[in-house]
Design goal:
Length: 187
């Protein structure tokens, strides 16, 4: 499948990039803080980063006292509200997640990791489809922000299926790019 080949290529890029960059994660967190849509939001769905994803844990720690912060529960295609990062448990895929799920479907902002993005907002994930299915269940008013390293931006259009969900903004250590893939309202 074409997506598998593209995934493999971008995983190689990510590993090569991570070996040579120390400050990219800090820059990504700083750019997140700088977004008006983030500072004015009340509820944010974040993600607990895998080793190949930007480390946004400092950002999560920085907002947790002032905002409702949620993380995915990958096995149940649900989310859980968190009050700290220490009380998380390891889920089946080795991803840290909340202990319990929360009935909540209206987020102001959703942060979404990926293996790759193109500048149209198309996301290439790990192939499980969690975000594609989850995004269909939540309010379309939430601003979707794709988080990745700049080396994960594809200059070519990524393969896209009809069920693939797009993001509104792509944020890397180098850019904040509005995709215009969807119409969303700012807070």
């Amino acid at each position: 499948m074409q997506k598998d080949k593209v995934r493999s290529e971008f995983k190689k890029r990510i590993l090569s990039f991570q070996e040579s960059s120390n400050s990219a994660d800090e820059k990504i967190c700083a750019k997140l803080y700088s977004l008006d849509i983030v500072s004015s939001s009340n509820s944010i769905l974040c993600f607990y980063p895998l080793a190949t994803e930007p480390d946004i844990k400092p950002f999560i720690q920085g907002i947790i006292a002032d905002k409702q912060v949620f993380l995915p529960l990958v096995d149940s295609e649900a989310v859980g509200e968190i009050s700290d990062l220490e009380s998380l448990v390891t889920g089946n895929f080795g991803i840290k997640e909340p202990v319990a799920k929360t009935l909540f479907s209206s987020f102001d902002v959703i942060l979404i990791p990926a293996i790759a993005y193109d500048l149209n907002g198309t996301r290439l994930g790990h192939g499980v489809g969690w975000y594609d299915r989850f995004l269909l269940k939540v309010s379309s008013k939430a601003v979707r922000i794709g988080i990745c390293y700049h080396c994960q931006i594809s200059s070519a259009l990524l393969p896209k299926a009809t069920h693939d969900q797009v993001v509104d903004i792509i944020l890397t250590e180098e850019i904040i790019h509005k995709t215009h893939a969807r119409k969303y309202q700012t807070l």
